[in-house]
Amino acid sequence: MENNKEIVFDEWDLKLENALKELKKCQESNNLNSCVPCSKFFECELRKKYVLAVYESMNKGSGGGFEF
Fold first, then answer.
1. Among 57, 66, 65, 45, CA closest to 17
2. Higher local confidence (pLDDT), 40 or 6
3. Taking Cα atoms as reference points, which of 61, 62, 60, 56 lies closest to residue 20?
4. Most buried of the four, 38, 50, 54, 56, by CB within 10 Å?
């Protein structure tokens, strides 16, 4: 039996996917496989954009803070 599950992306998933692509491109251009060794780790706007996109994709834009 075949499972034909269609994956549906919402606007937050698309933003996350785009942010991840930008981040990976930056890492590759700097010969890195992670942001951690980068000297711009804490100031990096691409990384901040990615972290925000992850959070927004988790809460689907409902707002709030990082509460665990």
1. 57
2. 40
3. 56
4. 50
**pLDDT tens profile 14-68:** 999 999 999 999 999 999 999 999 999 999 999 999 999 998 888 876 666 655 4
Please spell the DSSP secondary structure of 15-46, one letter per residue.
Answer: HHHHHHHHHHHHHHHTT-SSSTT-TTTTT-HH
Tokens of 53: 């996109």
Count of Cβ atoms closer than 10 Å to residue 3 Cβ: 4
The pLDDT value given to residue 59:
80
What does the block give as tokens for 5? 């599950």
Q: What pTM was computed for the model?
A: 0.73
Residue the block writes with tokens 């998933």: 13
